[in-house]
Amino acid sequence: MDIRKQLELLEHERLSPKAAFSDRSRGRLRPTHEEDGDVRTCYQRDTDRIVHCKAFRRLMHKTQVFLQPEGDHYRTRMTHTIEVARIARTIARALQLNEDLAEAGAMGHDLGHTPFGHAGEGALSECLGKPFYHNEQSLRVVDILEHNGNGLNLSYEVRMAILGHTGDNIPETLEGQIVRCSDQIAYVNHDIDDAMRAGILTEGDIPRSITGVLGETHSQRLNTLVCDVVEASRDGDAIRMSSAVEQAHKDLRAFMFERVYRNPIAKSEESKAKAMLQRLYDYYIRHPEAMPADFLPQLSFDGMERTVCDYIAGMTDKYAVDKYTELFIPSGWHVRG
Questions:
Q1: CB atoms within 10 A of CB 188
Q2: Which of 251, 257, 228 shows the shortest CA–CA distance to 240?
Q3: Going by C-beta distance under 8 Å and a sequence separation of 6 or more, which residues neighbour residue 23?
Q4: Whether this model's pTM surpasses 0.85
Q5: Residue 36: exposed, middle, or buried by beta-carbon count in 10 A (0-12, 13-18, 19+)?
Q6: What letter does residue 258 receive in the DSSP assignment?
């Protein structure tokens, strides 16, 4: 028996009957024989495909909340992704669900995020005249944009975990629901940490009605939320929190919107970022030949707006600033003496 088949057999021996077993996956968009003789299950292979793709590498230079923060310890999309993946694996393991599926979905969930966080999402929504949703763009990245238009050809369950990490599409698998829950747990709590680093919040600012339920410190809050999800979901058919903890988490999120996400200090550069991306969008609509050569074939089947949107959505913060500077900021003359 080959190693992959042994791993698949072990899943049936140790995981809950509610788990998404890798040998029962609904498969990939396109048939493949690459897994014949592989030592990885389909979900393990999907994680590797995601981690080795270009869009994943760009996450390290994409903003989480604070735009271009001056400091090495603020979260980026990549560090956020890693935190989500660790929380997801912990919950999946405790519930005897498929950790590999949860990890793959977590690793891919933000691949479609724009530069400058949700400011970029808003900018592209205004440019397109319709909502731009980063979860849909993440699915587009893995289905189409990577590998020169061939995509990563991921498993159905991983693709739905990516799509369903936010928005109205609730994943069918419990592992996909874990990714959705882990994302919410991760970003609210690490954004508190970053806000404290930025001097916007102190531990004492968080209402006692919240800390009394979730805990006084970052680690206490994370532990409370993770343990509560495990306990509340243990005997059910969905991933959930207890009513008390869920309400405290909702209150914490509302507090963060009031004090951080809409804070003028944290958002002081957001209008500039939106204006910059909108001007880049307008420029490339008029000058599509200025885009990298590998985007030009896409124009013939996706059209101008979609192609330009994909190009800008894939930019890192620094790349967007550099392109804006190159196109719109006059450079100094070098006069020979």
A1: 21
A2: 228
A3: 5, 8, 11, 41
A4: yes
A5: exposed
A6: I
The one-letter amino acid at 270:
E
Residue 70, SS3 per DSSP: coil
Q: Is residue 298 part of a domain?
A: no
Tokens of 301: 């089947």
- Angle at alpha carbon of residue 4, lines to 28 and 104, rounded to 5°: 50
Binned at pLDDT 50, 70 and 90, residue 1 comes out as low
Model pLDDT for residues 28-52, shown as the tens digit of each residue: 999 887 666 789 999 999 999 999 9
Is 94 a domain residue? yes
Note down the domain range covering 104: 40-261
Total structural domains in the chain? Answer: 1
Please say whether the beta carbons of 156 and 27 come within 8 A. yes
What are the tens digits of pLDDT across the range 51-106? 999 999 999 999 876 656 555 667 789 999 999 999 999 999 999 999 999 999 99
